[in-house]
Amino acid sequence: MRSVPARQSLLALAAALLALGALAGCGNDDERGRAGELRLALDFMPNAVHAGVYTTKRLSLDRGRGVDLRIVSPSSSTDSLKLLAAGRAEVAIVDIHDLGLARERGDDLVGIGAVVQRPLAAVIAGEGSAVSRPRRLEGRRVGVTGLPSDDAVLRAVVEHDGGRYDRVKRTTIGFSAVPSLIAGKVDAATAFWNAEGVALRAEGKRTREFRVGDYGAPPYPELVLVVKRATLDERRSELADLLGALARGTELALKDRAAATAAITKASGAPAPLVRAQLDAVAPALRPPLRLDRAALEAWARFDTRFGILKRPPNVERAFEFDLAPDPGTDQAP
Predict the structure, then answer these.
(1) Cα–Cα distance, 195 to 324 (Å, whole number)
(2) Distance between CA atoms of 41 and 26, rounded to whole angstroms?
(3) Which end of the chain is more exposed for a tag (fewer CB within 10 A), N or C?
(4) Parallel, antiparallel or unpaired: strands 91-95 and 223-228
């Protein structure tokens, strides 16, 4: 049985994941970029999806490629775009839906690499809620964060199973899926299966996961590396070198998960067992490192439009640069 301090630290981490409020890692938002430096704004507090980033820095793979990677941790999930816009980061990890929304607002941002290769969103139901399948969410309370993508995920999952989305009782809970499900305040909640889903299991909470990738969503990359077009034009070679280093760092992180776990634990202060469990869960989605799949992105554009996240399908050829990320299987050693 887990000790009380360990259990409390897991709950504290879950709360931090949901509140998106913890600051950890390297870098300072107020620093100005130096020559040869590329500041990378994370989408979230350091966690398992960033294993390649921290392994790249730990092994100085960036220096081997002639660039100086600096890691900047945000205070909320949308701050990476704000840091990019303010010139406090040259590269940002961004939720793909947020990239689409930013471009729809007129921001000329470009995705240059995929951090993960599949959707991470899911609807997670407490096993005691009797929600054995998505259509049974009709008439039940489902917690959502309030982000537009949450409604799209919930609708896609329910409708794919033949249910009526308009019969689901949605309630905004912010980023409190874990405590809300543990306390039984909701029957289900939208969350990330690789983060909250793992945290719930670590707490001994038995759940059912309805991953949007299994219920109608195409295999789009949930998180992408994004730059301003001006940065892409001015620093294309350096960005290609950074992607090469990150791809190599991701491969090495997956080969030595103990070391990758230690690096993330040090950066975040999270319990090592939980970090390792999250890394093991997300590992299949990290390959092939950084590659952008044109067909998957075209399918994502149609999905986001169909489910109301975007008003119209984005121009994938303008929204993404396909020539920077290294080919799978090539030697990425510096």
Answers:
(1) 29
(2) 10
(3) N
(4) antiparallel
Q: Which tokens is 163 given?
A: 């249910």
Tell me the pLDDT of the chain (334 aa) as tens digits.
333 333 334 444 444 444 433 333 344 434 444 668 999 999 989 999 999 999 999 999 999 999 999 999 887 655 899 999 999 999 999 999 999 999 999 999 999 999 999 999 999 998 766 899 999 999 999 999 998 899 999 999 999 999 999 999 999 999 899 999 999 999 999 999 999 999 999 989 989 999 999 999 999 999 999 999 999 999 999 999 999 999 999 999 999 999 999 999 999 999 999 999 999 999 999 999 999 999 999 999 999 999 999 999 999 999 999 999 887 655 444 4
Going by DSSP bridges, is the β-strand pair 141-144/68-72 parallel, antiparallel, or unpaired?
unpaired
